[in-house]
Amino acid sequence: MIDPPNPRDNHLLAALPEAEWLRWLPELEAVEMSLGQVLYESGSRMSHVYFPTTAIVSMLYVMENGAPAEIAVVGNEGVVGVSLFMGGESTPSRAEVQSAGLGFRLRARIMKEEFDRAGPVLNLLLRYTQALITQISQTAVCNRHHSLDNQLCRSLLLSLDRLQGDELVMTQKLLANMLGVRREGVTEAALKLQSAGLIRYARGHISVLDRLGLEARSCECYAVVKREYDRLLPNELAM
């Protein structure tokens, strides 16, 4: 018998004070997030925010020619749809499920009402948003200054932090989107890490064999992002 999903497996939901938790609980809707599912498109009006528990969602910016590039990932540490409660209602990015799993969603109206209360949830969400902005900024720096090898290590580590275990299931297409390169480039970079004994890579399945080695091979960007999440968010949200 499969245990039902638990909203508290999302660290933001787990950090809610008791009064807010009891107010939100009846409004949270469990959802399955399938690989490649688009939660919202660029410019679309958001109807819900999403709190992944076992899924990972990739935030992609799509160019006019259709070429996508990842700007951030969201998993069990956070929420998808910050522009909704920040007042923008929509965003130029796309939210696409990078790793299939479960999560919960909350209607836009409920989220905005909670944010407007200016209570503890407001403070929590603002600190989370600052951490997310750090990840987006550091991704831009990494893509400009560091090798594809470094970028792949950073992306794999960020994804690992949001999953239980050392197995990642990502299509070659999604990996290419993450790094903003052609699929052949992804394969070449992944095979380098495999030759070094850090991962095992086969048809979109990645098993991390040596996490410490992966961290050593990564650039400074992963550590910068992790420190900022740990600094800004409560201990129960630490990755």
UniProtKB/TrEMBL annotation:
Keyword set, alphabetical order: DNA-binding, Transcription, Transcription regulation
PROSITE patterns xref list: HTH_CRP_2
GO MF, one example: DNA binding
HTH crp-type domain: residues covered: 146-212
Keyword Cell membrane applies: no
Pfam families: HTH_Crp_2
A single cellular component GO annotation: cytosol
The keyword Repeat is assigned to this record: no
InterPro entries tied to this protein: cNMP-bd_dom, cNMP-bd_dom_sf, Env_Response_Regulators, HTH_CRP, RmlC-like_jellyroll, WH_DNA-bd_sf
SUPFAM superfamilies, per database record: cAMP-binding domain-like (SSF51206), Winged helix' DNA-binding domain (SSF46785)
PANTHER family: CRP FAMILY TRANSCRIPTIONAL REGULATORY PROTEIN, HTH-TYPE TRANSCRIPTIONAL REGULATOR ARCR
Name under which the protein is recorded: Crp/Fnr family transcriptional regulator
Protein species of origin: Chitinimonas arctica
